[in-house]
Amino acid sequence: MAVRPVKLFEPVSFRSVTARNRIVVAPMCQYSATDGLGDDWHVQHLGARAMGGAGIVFTEATHVSAIGRITPYCLGLWNAQHAALLTRLAAIIARGGAVPGIQIAHAGRKASTTRTWEGSKPIAPADGGWVPVAPSPIPFHPGAVDPRGLTTGEIAEIAAQFAASARLAREAGMKVVEIHAAHGYLLHQFLSPLTNKRTDAYGGSLENRMRYPLELFAAMRDAWPAKKPMGIRISAVDWVEGGWTIQDSIAFTRELQKLGCDYVDASSGGNDPNQKIKIGPSYQVPFAARVKAETSLPVAAVGLITDVEQAEKILANGDADAVLLGRPYVYGLALGGEQGVREVIRNFVADFDLTLALSGCRSVSELGFQCLQLAP
Ligand SMILES: Cc1cc2nc3c(=O)[nH]c(=O)nc-3n(C[C@H](O)[C@H](O)[C@H](O)COP(=O)(O)O)c2cc1C
Asked: Which of 62, 179, 232, 327 to mutate to test the pocket of ligand 1 (most atoms within 8 A of CB)?
């Protein structure tokens, strides 16, 4: 390894919370819950990620209501049973030495679909799905279940649901809360001119399109302890002509900062099937770097960051304050089948590099020796 990981393994603090290093496990849907309620699968998944050495481990997108779920198998947080499972998740992550974080979400028009490995196909209400809601009644793609446009009363209700989920997360012992405003889900739909065609105070100008996500952020910030950090995941660009831009993201971040936002996690895309993404290693890092350069808010970079040296460079260059890893941890398991097995093998290698770097060992045999010494 040419570059020694120094920055990567520096602790990082947000408000009263300190993570042991700057590696964050990205939120990743497991599509394994029933009626919003997770089980041992989620406990082992997140516990294993924490034991793998990351600084912060996020739950998957955890939805504020049944109709806010992407699929009927997504995690939810709207009742006491959900909160009890969240308590287990926070505890197992903390036991693994990581900071427990939760991503709170509403899928908007992208709700009521099958799981990714079933093709993310629309599920009609007659087949056990439901009518999704959105800022404007425009389906995600032809053939998707037509969403219903939200009234202003319903908009306020959903903001209250986010605040209620944050209160349950607080009681469950979560230490970081993040709003999911990326990937074409409800809040991204409000932000982007491609999906928000409203003619009231929540549509039209950039200021109007940002209004609801900012109101919702403020409501959640009030429900979340002042000493604990709260951040947001955005799609920095739509990758579509006439869509949400990096300049919009910078303007949005400046407003969020005034409301007590602690970090922005800069992802991209997901709001329009016509997007043209220029994909490659670190392809979203320039968005994090721009937001960081033009605001004073800490940022996290994500997307095809697959080895320690690459991650170290991102942090050492000052492009981001933390890096999120998703697929390098578990994509193979989510994919399944032959492709999944290949991913698992590839990721085992990536994970092993990470394990070595985290342990401070120079070789596999040194790591093995250290493990033996640790054994009771
Ligand atoms: C199986 C899977 C599930 C995901 N679920 C979520 C999610 O719940 N919320 C979210 O914001 N992003 C989700 N993502 C996106 C990841 O958080 C991450 O941004 C993306 O995978 C890019 O990072 P990577 O290249 O390290 O995987 C998911 C990705 C995968 C592979």
From this structure: 327
Residue 50's closest CA among 8, 91, 6?
91
For residue 88 and ligand 1, the question of a CB distance below 6 A is answered with no
Q: Would you list the DSSP string of 171-210?
A: HHT--EEEEEE-TTSHHHHHH-TTT----STTSSSHHHHH
Chain centroid to CA 217: 15
Query: Which one-letter amino acid corresponds to residue 21?
Result: N
Angle 66-135-117 (CA atoms, 0-180°, nearest 5)? 50
C-beta neighbour count of 371 within 10 angstroms = 11
The Å distance, Cα 115 to ligand 1 centre, comes to 14
Verify whether residue 329 is a known catalytic residue. no
233-275 pLDDT, tens digit each: 999 999 999 999 999 999 999 999 999 999 999 999 999 999 9
Looking at domain 7-374, its CATH class is alpha beta
Long-range contacts, stretch 118-126, CB < 8 angstroms, 24+ apart: 123/71, 123/72
Q: Is the pTM of this model over 0.85?
A: yes
φ, ψ (nearest 5 deg) of residue 58:
-95, 140
Q: Please work out whether the CB of residue 270 comes within 6 Å of at least one atom of ligand 1.
A: no
CB 223 within 8 A of CB 167: yes
Cα(253) to ligand 1 centroid in Å equals 21
- CA distances to 183, 232, 255, 266 from 249, rounded to whole Å, are 14, 12, 10, 9
Ligand 1 centroid–CA 212 distance in Å is 24
